[in-house]
Design goal:
The complex is a heterodimer of chains A (446) and B (387). With 446 residues, chain A is of the alpha/beta class. Chain A is 25% helix and 20% strand. Chain A has a 7-stranded mixed beta sheet. Chain A has a 5-stranded mixed beta sheet with strand order 2-17-16-19-18, with no helix packed on it. In chain A, α4 crosses α8 and α11 packs across α14. Chain A starts with a strand and ends with a helix. By secondary structure, chain B is an all-alpha fold. In chain B, 61% of the residues lie in helices and 0% in strands. Chain B is globular, with a radius of gyration of 23 Å. The chains are: A alpha/beta (446), B mainly alpha (387). At the A-B interface, α13 of A face α3 and α16 of B.
């Protein structure tokens, strides 16, 4: 097992860690299948409002590849179809029935996975609505099945500081994990399984066989355990740029799907926020936000990852790629002479407030703490970037329409962790600028 | 109860924003309001949490680091005036007399400079950047206390308009605006900027010169250090700063305190300061080892060079301006070291410009983008290509 050394990143003490117990939430009256969190997708609706669907039945597909399907997490009538700006499909909401009727497939055992023709395996996963869990670098689009990646990174931990712990996801799912790993071995013989230092102990406890397959541990400095940051650390040649990655919960879902022949509807979600520590929650796919969190304090922001998630509206449903809900308060408002205060309660990665002298729990809020200004070349973004980029110079190259320069500076190595925007004292949306440019370049190349 | 100031800004908001009557002047209103009340807009795009450091805080730390040299400069101006008058004044009196000379310079610098900033912000319809907070204080600290106020106004105008705004404002300037203004005055009004101008007060006693240590040379085979000692510039005095000179530059000690604040808070990049001092010391030693020139500054050695003149002030506060310095770490080392090297070379090789640090920094400002370009090219070539 190799220990990755990623010294740069966010290492403040945030005190919102969820409790390690796990509760089961009841089936809510509606579940949603969300398209808003899926990168690059051009959704095409396959059902109508009022139509009855079974659990595991396709609801929409991707126009770019119609064999990829997004399936219903519940049995019931399609209640509403929600569109976003420019009539982009956002969510399909199902009014749930108490008894599930599954779309049934033939179960496959471990030997079956090893022996199955690759095309058949891919077709099966695509039909089951799980193929899209495998993502391809650098743009993190769906993996192309006929392409053999140099490496597949299995990320045991999620996108947020407090995503569900791998040992809780793995509980009772060791066989599914093994099956998932067997699937991955069909596509690449180099699997890099990465977990956070703090998760390792729990994984040893839950299953020796799983822990022995871990190849790398990453320090508990965000975003060291992100697949993008891990890939940058371990890649040695350009061929590895198009590696694939998959998150533990999707891997387990794939395994469960093949072993049982049914769409796995369960997932583990964590909720972080000010106040009491909440337990991990075992819930259905596509839970509505209202069923997950009770009352949301006014003026606060609900996101699916404080650094790189999306904003959840009050009536939103959790998407396939999301398993954390952060409630972030708005903070104290406009403080008088805020710039001149000693700042014991102002968490910062710089050393300009007294808070940097102590390791007190950092109270994060969802405001900018300033106004946008021109870049002053301070290099805070370079100092924080886990992938050795110089976001300010890339941003300037992009503003000058010099894509070649931006690419040479490593634009496509960006892992969209959000830290450059986090630290920028000029409050420039660096992550957004880089991320948009990556997507535009990827779309252009495609 | 609602803060009355807050109420004032809330009441005037409709006038200055949207379709208000004075919407043209929104930048001025916004700058005033955000000075009193830190803006706290909600984040709309990821990441949803942000660091508390913003440009206001950033520039405030630089101001904080400048306070020791400013206060010492005010005191020293009064102290030197006392010596010039042949009297021994109390600390309070020194402060008051010093403030009488220095504060008007600082005020003119801020008022005129902000007038230009406001004008450009209103015409260009952008918010006012905090960069000028620092420029407006740095500029007066580089001037002799005897400078006429109209020259201060002219100098800061040149610095802000030609040094910064013609390039697009803070963040886009090539040269350090404060130094640009000083260089303009230095070459346009040499009479006010060189010679016996460094001591405030109308009449100097006989035998008291108002020259800086850098203009001292040993006459008739006397070594430079002995000549400096005779002229009242012992190393201790040069280090603590009780000598004539520009308002802010005299005290090496206060400059080092400021540099320490900037480096500990990591507002200034330590690479520039350390690299600069290293380049400077190495060059002074090399120059010292070259035979000849017993009576000139080439033989003064690193300590006298460091403590006399404005090098420490320049390398701590001027060269570390992030906008006009390189944005890459190797570039910063080279930039700092080259400033140190050039300062000594100008001091030693060209007695017409006794103070080399201003020219050295401006010269290297011009080369900063080239240094960045070379470093970026090198770094790109080391990356595993990903296109």
């Amino acid at each position: 097992m190799k220990i990755l050394k990623i010294p740069r990143g966010f290492d403040l003490n945030v005190a919102e860690q969820p409790d390690l117990s796990c509760t089961h939430l009841a089936l809510p009256s509606s579940l949603g299948c969300c398209a808003g969190d899926i990168p690059h997708i051009r959704p095409k609706l396959l059902v109508k409002e009022g139509q009855r669907v079974n659990t595991g039945e396709a609801l929409f597909t991707d126009k770019r590849d119609t064999t990829i399907q997004y399936v219903s997490p519940a049995t019931g009538q399609v209640k509403t179809v929600i569109y976003g700006p420019r009539r982009r499909l956002m969510e399909v909401v199902i009014a749930t029935e108490s008894e599930d009727e599954y779309v049934e497939y033939d179960p496959v055992d471990l030997n079956g996975i090893v022996g199955m023709p690759r095309d058949e395996l891919v077709a099966c996963l695509k039909k089951g609505g799980l193929w899209q869990g495998l993502l391809r670098f650098p743009a993190l689009d769906c993996a192309e099945p006929d392409h053999s990646p140099a490496m597949i990174i299995v990320a045991m931990d999620g996108n947020d500081l407090f995503s569900p712990r791998p040992d809780i996801i793995l509980k009772d799912n060791i066989a599914a994990f093994e099956a998932g790993m067997a699937i991955l071995r069909r596509f690449s013989n180099r699997l890099s399984v990465v977990c956070r230092e703090s998760s390792l102990e729990g994984i040893w406890e839950i299953g020796r066989s799983v822990a022995e397959q871990i190849t790398h541990t990453a320090p508990d400095i965000y975003p060291a355990w992100h697949p993008g940051a891990v890939l940058y650390q371990i890649k040695q040649q350009a061929a590895e740029n198009n590696s694939w990655c998959i998150r533990l919960d999707h891997l387990v879902m794939m395994g469960r799907f093949l072993l049982s022949g049914r769409y796995p509807v369960e997932k583990i979600v964590t909720i972080t926020g000010p106040g009491e520590r909440q337990p991990h929650m075992r819930v259905r796919q596509g839970m509505p936000l209202s069923a997950l969190v009770g009352k949301i304090p006014g003026n606060s922001l609900v996101t699916t990852g404080r650094f790189n998630g999306r904003i959840l509206e009050k009536d939103a449903h959790i998407g396939l790629f999301e398993n954390t809900v952060n409630i972030i308060e708005a903070g104290p408002g406009e403080e008088m002479f805020g710039f001149a205060r000693p700042g014991l309660d102002k968490p910062t990665l710089s050393s300009t407030f007294l808070s940097s002298l102590f390791r007190r729990p950092a109270k994060m809020d969802c405001t900018l703490h300033g106004e946008e200004r021109a870049c002053i070349n301070c290099s805070y973004c370079e100092r924080i970037c886990p992938n050795d980029l110089m976001p300010a110079f890339i941003m300037k190259a992009l503003h000058a329409d010099d894509l070649e320069d931006a690419l040479a500076l490593g634009l496509m190595d960006c892992c969209r962790c959000g830290l450059c925007s986090f630290v920028c004292p000029s409050k420039i949306e660096l992550t957004q600028i880089l991320s948009d440019a990556m997507d535009a370049y990827y779309k252009d190349k495609e | 109860m609602k803060n009355p100031l807050k109420k004032f800004f809330d009441d005037t908001k409709p006038l200055f924003t949207g379709d208000g009557k004075y919407k043209k002047y929104e930048p001025i209103w916004d700058a005033t309001k955000t000075f009193f009340f830190l803006p706290s807009v909600k984040t709309l795009v990821m990441p949803f949490v942000r660091d508390h450091l913003d440009l206001k805080r950033y520039m405030s730390i630089v101001i904080l680091a400048l306070l020791p040299v400013t206060f010492f400069g005010i005191y020293n101006t009064g102290y030197q005036a006392g010596i010039g008058a042949g009297e021994s004044w109390s600390v309070t009196r020194c402060f008051l007399i010093g403030a009488w000379y220095v504060l008007p310079i600082i005020m003119v610098s801020y008022v005129v400079g902000f007038a230009w900033e406001f004008l450009f912000a209103v015409v260009r319809r952008h918010n006012i950047s905090e960069g000028f907070l620092v420029t407006g204080l740095l500029f007066p600290l580089t001037l002799p206390p005897t400078i006429p106020l109209w020259q201060v106004a002219l100098g800061i105008s040149f610095g802000v308009v030609i040094g910064k705004e013609v390039f697009g404002g803070t963040g886009r300037n090539i040269l350090n605006p404060a130094l640009t203004g000083r260089a303009f005055l230095f070459f346009s009004y040499p009479v006010s900027m060189s010679g016996d101008v460094w001591v405030a007060g109308k009449h100097l006693m006989d035998g008291v010169t108002g020259a800086t240590a850098l203009s001292v040379t040993g006459a008739g085979g006397q070594s430079i250090t002995a000549a400096l000692y005779d002229a009242g510039y012992s190393l201790g005095r040069l280090f603590t700063g009780f000598v004539p000179g520009s308002v802010g530059e005299t005290s090496a000690l206060c400059c080092l305190i400021g540099a320490a604040i900037l480096m500990v808070t990591r507002i200034a990049n330590y690479r520039i300061i350390i690299g600069g001092i290293a380049g400077f010391v190495i060059t002074t030693i090399i120059v010292y080892l070259i035979p000849g020139g017993q009576d000139s500054w080439s033989n003064a050695g690193p300590f006298y060079h460091l403590c006399a003149g404005g090098f420490l002030f320049g390398i701590s506060f001027m060269a570390t301006d992030p906008v006009s310095a390189p944005g890459t770490n190797p570039g910063r080392w080279i930039f700092g070291a080259a400033i140190g090297f050039l300062t000594v070379i100008i001091r030693v090789g060209n007695p017409a410009f006794m103070e080399g640090v201003m020219l050295a920094i401006l010269f290297m400002n011009v080369f900063a983008p080239l240094l960045d370009h070379l470093v970026l090219k090198y770094k790109s070539s080391k990356r595993i290509p990903n296109v």
